[in-house]
Design a protein that fits this description.
Protein name: Succinate dehydrogenase/fumarate reductase iron-sulfur subunit
Family: Belongs to the succinate dehydrogenase/fumarate reductase iron-sulfur protein family.
Pfam family, one: Fer4_8
Radius of gyration: 21 Å
Cofactor: [3Fe-4S] cluster; [2Fe-2S] cluster
InterPro entries: 2Fe-2S_ferredoxin-like_sf (IPR036010), 2Fe2S_fd_BS (IPR006058), 4Fe4S_Fe-S-bd (IPR017896), Beta-grasp_dom_sf (IPR012675), Helical_ferredxn (IPR009051), SDH/FRD_Iron-Sulfur (IPR050573), Succ_DH/fum_Rdtase_N (IPR025192)
Distance between the termini: 67 Å
Helix content: 25-40%
């Protein structure tokens, strides 16, 4: 396979208070079989060898599971390729001589830590507010003790596929977190185990989402288009219904 010679336009920012700027790097002799993050590793190795400051970016599993590798590539979260994370993007999708723009996810609730690294702790706080089920610990219950309709199980499983990367927020013009919150609420609210705390969970997670500074959803579906796990916006409609019912119940009680 032929190697690629690329030009990178990379966002550099010292911290959340720094204005930041774009710097240009030459990515030479990049193997086509390399992943996008491996390409950045190669560039960073050369930058370090030349006495420069390496490009800071986030990563962990590099298998499309953890959601840490959140980059905006040529203006699109995780790139224009659908159904993949940044770490699953390979350089064979680019052409030699191409210029690639690399920026962090942009959202008020995701402050820049450094360069391409953002603080997505807001998602963790939303999960802490209600994204769990309180159960008695001890011996595991029998797997068949609580039958669940296949349709419901499949819908819950699909919602649970969300890895919390934040692409939905970065793609939304309002920086809305509704797709993330609706997926995390849905996979619990749909199951029998999640029913007892459904009202409390829904109200708490939406309240925390609002407090974190995420914008409103205007149903333009950019979130679904860039989601690496292709989470459906149907979950947003379900969350809106659950929130309305939960508000009524809370008001009555």
């Amino acid at each position: 396979m032929a190697n690629l010679n690329l030009t990178l336009k990379v966002w550099r920012q010292k911290n959340a208070n720094d204005r930041g700027h774009i710097e240009t790097y030459e990515a030479k002799d990049i193997p086509e079989e390399a992943s996008f993050l491996e390409m950045l590793d190669i560039v960073n190795e050369r930058v370090i060898n030349e006495g420069g400051n390496p490009i800071h970016f986030d990563h962990d599993c590099r298998e499309g599971i953890c959601g840490m590798c959140s980059l905006t590539i040529n203006g699109v979260p995780h790139s224009k390729e659908q159904g993949i994370t940044t770490c699953q993007l390979h350089m064979r999708k680019f052409k030699s001589g191409e210029t690639i723009w690399i920026e962090p996810f942009r959202a008020k609730a995701f402050p820049v830590v450094k360069d391409l690294v953002t603080d997505r702790g807001a998602f963790d706080r939303i999960m802490s507010a209600g994204g769990f089920i309180d159960v008695r610990t001890g011996s595991a219950p029998d797997a068949n003790s609580m039958p669940i309709e296949k349709k419901i199980a499949d819908e819950a499983f699909d919602a649970a596929a969300c890895i919390g990367c934040g692409a939905c927020v970065a793609a939304c013009k309002n920086a809305s977190a509704m797709l993330f919150v609706s997926a995390k609420a849905a996979h619990l609210n749909k199951l029998p185990q999640g029913q007892p705390e459904k009202t409390k969970r829904t109200l708490a997670m939406v309240k925390q989402m609002d407090e974190e500074g995420f914008g409103n959803c205007t149903n333009q579906y950019e979130c679904e288009a860039v989601c690496p796990k292709e989470i459906s916006v149907d979950n947003i409609a379900k969350l809106n219904r659950d929130y309305l019912l939960a508000s009524v119940k809370d008001g009555v009680s």
